[in-house]
Amino acid sequence: KFIDRVAFRVEEALQSNEIINVFQDDFEMLGDEEAASGGKVNTTNMTLRTFIENDYCKGKRVSCIKFHPKKPFLVAMSMIDNMDFDTRSLIQGKSFDSYVLILNFSDNHIITLNYVLETPIEVSTIEFHPENPNMLLGGCLNGQIIVWDLSSQDHRITAGLKQKAEQ
User: Taxonomically, which superkingdom (predicted)?
Assistant: First the structure.
């Protein structure tokens, strides 16, 4: 009975193994060897621009990236500390500064930092509100949700310095 039930799937798998070369090196198709010899260059894997911010990004990794729904040149990026599971489990529940950065890609040559959103808990995922794109929601590692209003001047960056909130 078992053979009768799985015979079709086994035959299908065997046929696909005959058609597809499972031992082929997929990296050969990227075009790097041809680029070195003056042949064609694979532009799909080229790095166009990079962003480095040592004040907020040092020792962290990006956990989520979202484009602004109305302004595609604005990109929100949440970051978490770059640590292994064992280390993270030891500090679980502890509060420390974490940031969500909003970058401006409107200039073709310079990527600027528009907003620095602070949070006491690391944000693992972010999303713009579907009806109000000035609202950014962040899902924290501890399960909390944080909401930022981007129309407020509290988080805006001016000339590389964070503006102080008006009291």
Answer: Eukaryota
